[in-house]
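<goal> How does this chain fold?
<sample>
Here is the protein in question

***
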Amino acid sequence: MPQSNPTRRTAAALAADLVCVIVFCTIGRRSHAEGLTVAGIAETAWPFLTGTLAGWLAARAWQRPTSLYPTGLIVWVVTVAVGMLLRKATSAGTAPSFIVVASITTAVLLLGWRAIAMVLARR
């Protein structure tokens, strides 16, 4: 991501994180033969999107939005933790296997794009 405009870079990083969470939820709904409607995806995604925003606040991600560590790590952990807590609070599934799959998938997505950005920035 371009370093010349910090506001644009921050907005793009936040958008990338939110898109990653939506992709995760869409893949999950599809793999479980649930409907791929906007409402269905939103219902699945809102706990994790809330977690992502909480992660951004906890990490102060706007300061170093593309940083793998600590920003990406904090955003990822808080996304999963808050997402699971909200799912539990609303009687949605939080089976141990789901927690593992969600943790791995969101790590690949939320940390992966940052790792790619880091490699590209070094070029």
About this structure: Residues 6-122 form one domain. The chain has one domain: 6-122. Helices lie at 6-31, 38-59, 68-89, 96-122.
